[in-house]
Structure formats: structure tokens, C-alpha cells
């Protein structure tokens, strides 16, 4: 990575000052004279540069200089992005570092600084972590107009030490407009907020959503010097959505500086007009929704007891609703016709799941909490009682409505039982649709952002090899402790563990491609490694998390795996192998195989 000219000049000056301070030039002259006297052979006319460097290194001159210059290296590392592939993100602890950052001078940027936090009262009693101690951390993620950013993790504390700066490119439109410098008026019309998400990572690597906040940044357009500071109160999620999590100190600045700023009155008027427009759309939709509901009840008064949810503002759903919405969105992204279903399970418990409609009419239910899929075959209520009816395997009992990003349909069939429900969504005698135009008025793609929501995927930050080894060592320790509690000794066989690796690779390959490969070679290798008269047992299992203790507890619940871990007998040898396969967004597939071999005694 090349340094900006001003940074290179500054770095050269620092090095020159340090060399002069240490009198390095004088020391080099002394070593050069000594080397010429001692090491130059009579038939050799001159020393090469390599010979001189070796002499300097041998006498420790180069090491001394590098140690003294170490603080310069650290400073440069903080000011430069860690990787050119990542979004521009750099530390700013004193003054702005924008002048030292490579940016396009023809584009307009919003420089957003996070300058610490306070009032994170949940962590009020937490002691300051010791150097090298593993602790829970906060990470702040930002999304703005298809750009993604992530702060450095900071230890969880009452006043978390956030000190990060982000360059958000404001004007990222289609080709043709893309190179034009956006002025204040143009940027005032860009209503996209900065989405800020706070994530907590515990000592086991498990992540938790702490808060989500949409920052209105356009107040900076009306500040006198193109710079403004504000505090952001983060609220919790789910059942704690009304509880304050903490406060972040934010500083906003436009770069390059605006030639002409707007008055604060103009900015406030624009924001007020946008709020009024949104409120009017929602008001008109509510009027329509109430009329739709009256018509729905006129079809059959008993519809009043069905789970038909039309419109909700700032509603915080439970786990099944959130998972169902996410799964439905993913399936829609894959090109399937998917809907969220709202109904009940056994004993009338409200529930949400996902349904896809195949081109051949096949209806498939997806349970978002477990990943299970069920084919729906409706029973015919008019059939003779003695006639054989398809027995449902799914746990769902009733269904009130289905919806996705474009459609909402209420179930108006005589019975809301899933077992006899017909999912012909085009038949308005069975499913009452809501106007798609009304839905678009509040759910249109451009209603909340002027760009399609296609943020880039982030590369994995997990080192697969290191993580695999760490989990494997933890599992070895857990197995040894568990066997010790049972009065058993543990002998590990590294060669047997090594032979398990290809099997785990083939399992992941089969999981992702549905193609089986390498099984015969694995079995042949195991046969060669297990002597005659010995028995081999293996137990592979797949996880999507990296918590070794949690995985071990799950494995022990399997009788077959528990039998391997607690194996007793003659010449018992144990093996365990872990393979972590990484994917974008730091998602991972963790494969673990426990194995043992022992001498069979009959």
C-alpha cells in the first residue's frame, strides 16, 4: 500500500531525526572502517552492499534502529486501513485524520466518528479487563447506501471505549451521475439513514444483538462549519425495546467541506415534510385496512377469532416470527414464491412458519426454528369417514393469514384447520387479498431507501485452521476430564485423529452439493489403521457455532457418542477431529468426529 506524499515526507523526517539522535551515521562509519580492515581480502577491491548490511546486522545496529522506530510503525498502522478490501475505517483519537486518508476528491463523503459511549448500565459493575484477558466485547456495525462498516471490538464496559471513524460515500448513483459532486440541496433529498447495529460477543464467541438505531445525518447540512456533534440513545430489542441500553457520542462532518451550507430551518422543514408524507401514507393505509377488516368479518363473523394480523407499528415479535420473516426473505431472494404463515400449533399456541408454492402446485411448509420441511397434502372433508386420509406430519393446527413483501391474504375458508386448508391463493373465495397498491404505498422498495437493499457480503474473519485446532484441544480436555470423573484413563491416538479429516471434508462437501465423495477411501484408510481383532466406532456431528463446551454437552446427549467417549475395554484409543469451514459474514460449519478403537474381548 503506497503512502500519501505528505505522509511519506513526514515519515522520512521522523526517521532522519531518530537516526541523528542515535548517531547512527557515526556508528556506521566506524563499522565500515573496521569491516574494510578486517574482512576485505587483499585481492578484493570493494565490499558489496550485502556485506555491509550483514556487518551492520551482526553488530546489532539495524535492530537498535528498528526498536527505536517502533512507535512510528504503530502510528502508521492505526491511520491506515487494515486491508484495501475492507471499507475505509480508521482510528481517530485526537484530531481528524481525513487529510491523511486516500479518498476520491471528486466524491462527497460523510465522515462519521464514534467518540466513546456512556451509561451502558448493564456493565456498570464489570471490572476493567487485565491485559491478555478474554472478555466480552461490543462491535458497532454500520450500513449506509450499500456500504458496510464495522468498528474494532472494544471491551464491554459502562463507558465503552469506541474511537472509530468511517467515511460514508453519500453520492453513489448510477453511471453518468456518479462522478458529479453532490451539493447541499442534492444531499438533502437523500433520505437514507445510517443504520447502526450494536453487537455483543461473549467470551465463547456467541453474538447477541444489543441495539439497532437509524441515524438521521442530514442535520450536518445545516451546521455553520459543516460539522456537528450529537448523542444517540440506543434502545434495547424485543421485550426490552423501551429500555435504554446506552448512549453513543457521534460527530458528523462533510468532506470535502461544503461550499454553501443550508440554513437549519430549511433542513428542519424538509425533514418535517418527509415525516408528514410518511404519516399520511400510513393514515390512508389504516383507513383502507379497517375497511378490509370489516369486509372480512362480513364474510363470516367467526373470522374475528382468527389470527389475521394486518398492520403493526414498531412491533417486536418473538423468536418464531423473526425467524420466519428472515427465512421467507431468504427464500424470496432465491426466487421462490414464499409466504409467512400466521396461525397456531397444538393447544392453540400462536405460531409463525413459512410456506412455499411450487410451480407444480406443491405446498411446502418450512419450520424456521428447526429447519424441518413438510409437504402439505390437504384432506378432503367431504370424503367418507372410512376413506383413508393423508396424515399430517407437521405440528400446525390453524392458519389465519399469509403474507410476503407484496401480498397479504386472509383465510376465508369455512374452517381454518391447516389439515383441510386449500392453498389456491388466486381463489378469492378461499383467500381474501389486500390491495397490492395499498401495500406498495407503505412497503414499496423506495419507501425507506433510494437504493435497492443489496449490501455487499463481508468476507469471513475466522481463521479456519486456528479455530479448528482450538476447538479440538478444548474437546480433548473436556473428554479427558469427563472420563477422569468416571474413573477412566484417556489415551489419544493422533494418527487416528488425522485419518478422520478427509471424512469431515467429504461430509461438508455432501452437505453443500448433495454429492457424496471419498467415503470408500476413508473406510479403506480406517481398515488399515485398525488392527485385526479391534473394533472401530466413529460419530460425526455438525454444528453452526464454535462453542466447544456447548457442542460437547450436545454430543453427550447422543447414546452412540456417549458410548464412544466413555468407552471401556482393552487397549482403548480415542480420537477427535474438528474441521471448521468458513463462509461469508463469518458464518461457519463446524464438523466434529469422535472415534475410538479397542480390542474386542469375547
Summarize this structure as a short list of keywords or feature phrases.
flat; 602 residues; cytoplasm; 5-stranded antiparallel sheet; CEP76_N; cytoskeleton; 24% strand; alpha+beta; CEP76_C; 20 strands; 32% helix; single chain; 7-stranded antiparallel sheet
Characterise the protein shown here:
- About 7% of the residues have low confidence.
- The strands form four sheets. This protein has a seven-stranded antiparallel beta sheet with strand order 14-13-12-11-15-16-17, covered by helices on one side. The protein has a five-stranded antiparallel beta sheet with strand order 1-6-2-10-9, with no helix packed on it. Strands 3, 4, 5, 7 and 8 form a five-stranded antiparallel beta sheet that branches.
- The protein contains 15 helices and 20 strands.
- Helix content is 32%, strand content 24%.
- The relative contact order is 0.06.
- It is flat and about 110 Å long.
- The protein has 602 residues and is an alpha+beta fold.
- β15 and β16 form a beta hairpin.
- α7 runs antiparallel to α9.
Unreliable residue stretches: 70-99, 174-178, 311-317
Total strand count, please? 20
How would you classify the helix and strand content by structural class?
A: alpha+beta
Strand fraction equals: 15-25%
Shape: flat
Radius of gyration: 32 Å
How confident is the prediction overall: mean pLDDT? Answer: 81
How many angstroms separate the termini?
68 Å
Number of helices: 15
Largest sheet: 7 strands, antiparallel
Strand order of the largest sheet: 14-13-12-11-15-16-17
Helix content: 25-40%
Domain CEP76/DRC7 peptidase-like: 316-434
Domain Centrosomal protein of 76 kDa C-terminal: 461-599
Subcellular location: Cytoplasm, Cytoskeleton, Microtubule organizing center, Centrosome, Centriole
Domain CEP76 C2: 102-259
